[in-house]
Amino acid sequence: MRKLRESGTRRESLRIAAFATFFKNYMSVSAIVAASVPIPVAALKLIPTYSQQRGFLSVYASLFCFLLVAFVFSIRHQLATRMFSGGRRAAFISALPALFILLTMFCILGYHATLQRSLQQWRELGVVATSTDLLNKADYLEIPYSLSLAAYYLGIFVFAELAFVLMAMREYLQDALHLKELALLRGEPSMAQADSVRSRSAAQDSKGSDAPADSAEMAARPESPQ
Asked: pTM to 2 decimals?
């Protein structure tokens, strides 16, 4: 029975380790791919945009995405002490990717709603043309809600990239700190918590060892003559 249980636990650990390795490799690659997505998306015209905005928006979106990847990687040491320390800060950082996903959805809906209002304003001004012609031939200075469209467009890719890079950074830091997947799934103390416990116990031990030494020194001192 023990051998069967041990073999079962080994299989489960191998499955979890295989899935974790696959997911970590996928997340690390997806963060870079997501930063490069705006350029092919604009080139293939997958998102309806005004032609006068398409070029610079794709460049700005990719630029901000790569800058965010570099920035999050540069603060990985500060993130490591907060991601796996437990408490409210760790819970807040864990919830950030979900928040950025919701913000990405908000920007998508906001962009398409603003684009419809922009095209509708052309109709109200008496311009008789198809939506395709308006998107391709409208002058930049005449585009209604141009700044709102640019902000929503950039927000789609920036918030999506933030969600990707934070999830990828968490997997990277878990490997760098040698935190086991099963230990995290079971809710066991992380390395940061273990280090704090060790430091506290070491400080207490040092205080306890100093007290006998002080008492021994006091006993060894000769009494001063009265």
From this structure: 0.70
